[in-house]
Predict the structure.
Amino acid sequence: MSLTTRPSWVEINTRALEDNYRQLRSLAPAQAECMAIIKANAYGHSLALCAPAAVRAGAQWLGVTSVEEAAETRGYCPTAHGNTRILAIGGVLPAHGVTVIENNLTPVIWTAQHIDELEAAAHVANLKPQSFAVHLEIDTGMSRQGADLEAIPAILARFTPDSPLFIEAVMTHLYASDESNSVKSAGQLHKLHEALRIVTATHATQLKYLSAGASAALLGNDAHPIVTLAEEFHLQPMFRLGLALYGVEPRITPPIDSAPHPHLEPALTWKTRVADLRTIPAGTEIGYNGTFTATEPMKLALLPIGYADGLSRKLGNHFSLLVRGQRAPLVGRVSMDQVVLDVTEIPAVEFGDEVVILGKQGEETISAYDHADAAGTIPWEIFTSIAPRVERIAI
């Protein structure tokens, strides 16, 4: 086999993503809305591939971080082709207002500056009073973004009958839904209740959604209290599906026996090919600083991947990849562009053989959690660390 390009690629199973969305949607209450979170290039899976797939699965809402990413998403999901709503979660920076209006995006706001920017752009576009929806984020304890309870009245005062803006949703982020016995979510929901009481006292007419839960909330203990709170204020609960959408179930600790466990399928498989083979005698050092020394004759396979592709440098000497359906240990340090496998016990390995970095080969599987546990991080970082130079291919 001849290698005509540097062989490092990711395969995205868009059917799996669609099936995952439908399964998760079926676990939510019938009255709930489920937003597909496709921020950070769809968690590293490819925005171009995953945004249309989520829409095909039935998602009417897509969530990203920035206005720029939201505008890019609109290019993949034009308004003319449907009623796809795109939420820009990270707020509105100066000069973003025009982009928001032109692309029919839905921004999250929590400051007067956000309102100033959007109102100016809306007036230039001659939008009618109370015609453009925004989502108001409340900081219920994460201290990251969102309005404090004390700031809500001043923000609400800006939404006059003459303003082109109206509040369509109140949202917050429950930051400990993966803790099944946590009191943190209960404290956040208590603050959210107070926020809703303040908002609905004067702005209940066009308020439609309560957006307060991610994948872990839907699959853990927080779904029921979110739904109950939404019902109290006659709102539609909205869950924001992130990690689970891509086929990886969030770890909830301690585990909940009664929790639903959908049959999610990972949408991403990361592959490369053997670029060279060599045999070495005992005593040979491998890689930078000679952190591995062969204690016996070995057969080595060179792979054209490294930490510049997203393979964590922490995996050197204590992780394995899959070749010919078997685990082959990484030996030596992970370099910027290359890594070496010990294939001594897999004698049939040949030049050009396919190697799975993350995913399934034969009966063996390497999961995002395997990578995360070995690197001391989380699956979200594993996915989003896969570099842009690694091609994403739909299968």
